[in-house]
Amino acid sequence: MRYVIAVLAVAGIVVSCLALAQHYGAPARPIDLTHSAWNSAYVNQSSFATVYGMPVALLGVAGYLLLAVLVLLRRVVLTVYFAGIGLAYGLYLTNIEAHILHVWCVFCVASLILTVLIAILAFAALIFNRPAVTSR
């Protein structure tokens, strides 16, 4: 299961890099909500796309890289912990998209799906992959 989580984390790095490219890309066109509720450039260039001057997408790259390293080092508890933090932050950002920006980012939604899958699998690994207790 750890290799599946590692592959999902690598996919998350790719998605976050694409979002980062949108962040530094051409300026976003004004949104017209009558045509589409999807505008990744608008979301990635909004004031919510940075934390203390650092792009959120760059935090995503770092977070997914950390998850990949932790799971490959078999640090299951730390993987669950950081996957939970990533999931909570992803849900926070999704709430901003839904209730403040009223626009969705394809990369953000894909990242949230990957984070949910990683968190579920990491938690399952914690629960089901415990070493057997031997009696004396």
Distinctive features:
de novo design (two linked rop proteins), mainly alpha, two-stranded antiparallel sheet, 136 residues, 68% helix, single chain, 3% strand
- Report the CATH architecture: Up-down Bundle
Give the proportion of residues in helices. 55-70%
Q: What's the overall geometry? A: elongated
Number of DSSP strand runs: 2
In CATH terms, the superfamily is VKOR domain
The average pLDDT is: 90
Number of spatially distinct domains:
1
Q: Please give the alpha-carbon distance between the first and last residues.
A: 30 Å
| H/I helix tally | 5
Strand content: under 5%
Give the neighbour order of strands across the main sheet.
1-2
List SSEs in N-to-C order: HHEEHHH
Q: Which stretches are low in confidence, meaning pLDDT under 50 for 5 or more residues running?
A: none
- Main sheet attributes: strand count, strand direction, barrel closure: 2 strands, antiparallel
Rg, Å, rounded: 17 Å
Please identify the structural class as seen in this structure. mainly alpha
User: What's the CATH topology name?
Assistant: de novo design (two linked rop proteins)
CATH domain class name? Mainly Alpha
